[in-house]
Design a protein that fits this description.
It is built from 7 helices and 10 strands. It is an alpha+beta fold and about 210 residues long. It has 2 domains: about 1-105, 2-Layer Sandwich (Methyltransferase, Cobalt-precorrin-4 Transmethylase, Domain 2), CATH 3.30.950; about 130-210, Winged helix-like DNA-binding domain superfamily/Winged helix DNA-binding domain (Arc Repressor Mutant, subunit A, Orthogonal Bundle). Strand 5 and strand 6 form a beta hairpin.
């Protein structure tokens, strides 16, 4: 059963909900993956598996300790996970499962030492933008979101209808509203599901919810 289960996972390849690690030597780096899974849709981390799906196995208990350190010391707040150990082809593979969190945002240190939140998109982790972080905090607080569709809200919605996938700077250039007000409007409209955020390596884009983020 374990062999079939792990091979079925590996056959999927790395994706939004699955990541492979040959070894773990950097707890902060793993913390970024745990943060991204917890902040997005959850996911699994297979340790002892190369990026190409080859099973190498883990040789010591160090990987389990590194995961614990990453989740407890390098994630704020701590990311909860479950750990299962499987023997496949005579080799030990660790399966780390993270569920979507209701304590978003979970932060982890970036390469510069600054604590940031992350999202998982396809098979990559990206730093979450300030608007996404504000949305998580608003949802977590339980504060009701009331939106009054004034001229500013309608200008932003009309602009995104005409130019889906625009950046914050694009919106700011074409909508004569102050920086902080645009940010508040976007936070509210994302919170209630009217607008969605699409993260990529170099750009954070905004789309009306009926427009797929392609």
């Amino acid at each position: 059963m374990s062999k079939h289960y792990i091979h079925t996972l590996i056959a999927q390849g790395e994706n939004q909900h699955l990541d492979f690690k040959y070894v773990i030597s950097d707890a902060p780096k793993i913390a970024r993956t745990l943060s991204a899974f917890a902040n997005t849709d959850g996911g699994k981390l297979l340790i002892g598996v190369k990026d190409n799906g080859v099973i190498t196995g883990v040789r010591t208990d160090e990987e389990a300790y590194m995961i614990e350190s990453a989740a407890q010391l390098y994630c704020k707040p701590e990311v909860l996970y479950t750990l299962n150990s499987w023997i496949v082809e005579g080799k030990q593979v660790l399966e780390i499962t993270v569920t979507p969190s209701n304590q978003k945002p979970h932060l982890a240190p970036w390469k510069d030492g600054q604590w940031r939140a992350y999202v998982r998109v396809h098979d990559e982790n990206f730093v979450a933008g300030s608007i996404q972080v504000a949305v998580w905090k608003k949802i977590r607080s339980g504060t009701p979101t009331l939106v009054r569709y004034s001229e500013a809200e309608n200008q932003i919605l009309d602009f995104l209808h005409q130019y889906p996938g625009s950046s914050f700077n694009d919106i700011r250039k074409h909508c004569p509203t102050g920086y902080h007000r645009i940010k508040r409007i976007l936070v509210n409209l994302v919170t209630i599901g009217v607008i969605q955020i699409h993260h990529s390596e170099n750009t954070i884009r905004y789309l009306l919810h009926e427009n797929p983020a392609g």
